[in-house]
Amino acid sequence: MGITGLMRKLPMRFGEIEILDDLKDHWDSKEHKKERDALLKMLIHLSAERAFRFTLLSGDVHCAGYGMIHGRGDESESDVEDMPVPTEKQRAADPRFIPQIVSSAIVNVPPPSYVLLMNGRAGAHPMSVLGDCVWRMMSLTRHFHLGSKSPDDLLLGERNWCRVAQRDAEDGHSGKLLFSLRCEKGLGTGRMRTYKLEVPPLRRL
């Protein structure tokens, strides 16, 4: 973009120079791919060695979303796009399962629709990472474990905040974390809707 001059034109056209910086901070940005892969390898190694479950809580993109990394199993790299979402039991036993919760401070106004669309399209299809893992985004507006065929569903341009709580052991949810994404229905309305996402602890088989 620097060679074509687009880098200089975008801030003037849209009036938001910080958008370029936000796009560079994208999870799949080539500027951060090496650093990202090193972090994921370290987390997966610690998870397998010490039975930890890691969850990535990310933000500063001023929208809400949910993604996950999980083991590829016996699927070949060419079959990743058609690979079904692992069951809860499979995720609980997978040291490579790392959920990613996307949230931002409630005061932040959502980004322009074209930014959400660009990032949604980037995450619309599962992709192979680290050679033996799959990264995918999930739909919040549908039953989240089914995923989504529409990139517009993957990132919600709504002000939001995230509440994290541990489930009660007596309810049979020992060790589970419950992430509640509270999203505003209409900018400035104060009306909220909640998306609840459970993250199981790592269970060794």
From TrEMBL:
Classification via InterPro entries: PhoD-like_sf, PhoD_2-like
Domain of life: Eukaryota
Annotated signal sequence range: none
GO cellular component: membrane
Domain spans labelled PhoD-like phosphatase: 2-171
Protein name: PhoD-like phosphatase domain-containing protein
Organism (species): Volvox reticuliferus
Source taxonomy: Eukaryota, Viridiplantae, Chlorophyta, core chlorophytes, Chlorophyceae
